[in-house]
Design a protein that fits this description.
48% of the residues lie in helices and 9% in strands. It is of the alpha/beta class.
Length: 108
Amino acid sequence: MNKSVILKNLLNSGKTLIMPDVYNPISAKLVEKEKFKAIQCSGYSFSIASGYPIENDVTLSENLEWTRKIVESVDIPVMADGEDGYGGPEKVIDTIKNLFRQELQVLI
């Protein structure tokens, strides 16, 4: 079963789903090792891990790269944060397409 279907089933199960937030492949692997069923990654965690003073300092390309590495490092579903779309309304569609190219299961 692919990860998208797995995550959809988990989200629709009626049970609480705890998805720890990760910021790199090591943290993702630790969460997976502890038997969590899915993980979340976010710009806020990326910014803290990178030493940026504010979340908005994370660029779309950084978010895409870090998210790709996380997705490739684990066998459980990954839900990613598209922030504010990284621009005005005209950029949101491109941001969504770029994030889903990273084989994400869900984008928030």
